[in-house]
UniProtKB/TrEMBL annotation:
Location in the cell: Cell inner membrane
HAMAP family recorded: LpxH
Catalytic activity: UDP-2-N,3-O-bis[(3R)-3-hydroxytetradecanoyl]-alpha-D-glucosamine + H2O = 2-N,3-O-bis[(3R)-3-hydroxytetradecanoyl]-alpha-D-glucosaminyl 1-phosphate + UMP + 2 H(+)
Cofactor(s) needed by this chain: Mn(2+)
Name of the protein this chain belongs to: UDP-2,3-diacylglucosamine hydrolase
Species: Citrobacter murliniae
Binding, substrate: 79-80, 122, 160, 164, 167, 195
Length: 240
């Protein structure tokens, strides 16, 4: 009995090996799980559920097959796919979760999130995030013709790449005080997140007790998952 967590697959038509790895994961390892949690950035960029990209249908069908086989699938938005909406959730059989959620896994309380909100030193990103999370702006964006949305997303991606090349690694990592504050707010000793693409298990102190922050890896050349069982929390890398 295990609960699985993945994040940062960044699926896109240009990376068929990652898609193949994910499809194999869904029809293999995931079939034995109690539940699957996808902690954001499943897709490289999401510009609306009405995007007719065949990859999206293929992924929806594959997740739906897992959900229909009796394994509940959950999704927390990432900074690339924060616009993923109810229609795709329905088509894929996933339940959309709020940006942070506490789970009780076999008696262990675990906080889960994408991880971008922990990067509080990245003030440029947090300002950007606050802007694009405004509901009125999202409604406006989603009402635009698809080709314009594609152009805006491409521009945002290019700006992001340019901005990141001049930011230090420390700025783009989580802020340690923000991590402790979140864990104390939710009264948990375990946190699982993605976003930073720096897979590791960090030991820290929160609530005056030992605490653990488990960071999922991005799916570049291999898969990454966290497997929580009654006795263990394991960060696992596996080949596609
Ligand atoms: O994504 P990645 O890994 O490159 O870097 C992230 C942060 N960047 C982003 C931007 C995304 O890549 C863009 C994705 C587009 C998806 C779909 C478009 C939907 C549009 C909806 C509009 C309502 O998340 C990056 C972080 C990095 O992670 C590490 O944490 O540093 O942050 C940035 O690059 C942001 C810049 O630092 C700041 C840019 C300021 C621009 C502000 C203008 C806002 C105008 C909004 C107008 C619609
Ligand atoms: Mn991310």
């Amino acid at each position: 009995m295990a609960t699985l967590f993945i994040a940062d697959l960044h699926l896109c038509t240009e990376e068929p090996a990652i898609t193949a790895g994910f499809l194999r994961f869904l029809s293999g390892e995931a079939r034995q799980a109690d539940a699957l949690y996808i902690l954001g950035d499943l897709f490289e960029a999401w510009i609306g559920d009405d995007d007719p990209n065949p990859l999206h249908q293929q992924i929806a069908a594959a997740i739906k097959a897992l959900a229909d086989s009796g394994i509940p699938c959950f999704f927390i938005h990432g900074n690339r796919d924060f616009l993923l909406g109810k229609r795709f959730a329905r088509e894929s059989g996933m339940t959309l979760l709020p940006q942070e959620k506490v789970l009780d896994l076999y008696g262990r309380k675990v906080l889960i999130m994408h991880g971008d909100t922990l990067c509080t030193d990245d003030t440029g990103y947090q300002a950007f995030r606050a802007k694009v999370h405004q509901p009125w702006l999202q409604t406006l964006f989603l009402a635009l013709p698809l080709f314009i949305r594609q152009r805006i997303a491409a521009k945002m991606r290019a700006n992001s790449k340019a901005a990141n090349s001049s930011k230090s690694l420390e700025i783009m990592d989580v802020n340690p005080q923000a991590v402790v504050a979140e864990m104390e707010k939710h009264q948990v000793q375990w946190l699982i997140h993605g976003h930073t693409h720096r897979p590791a298990v960090h030991k820290l102190t929160a609530n005056k007790q030992p605490a653990f922050r488990v960071v999922l890896g991005a799916w570049h050349t291999e898969g990454s998952m966290v497997k929580v069982t009654r006795d263990n929390v394991e960060l696992i890398a596996f080949p596609f």
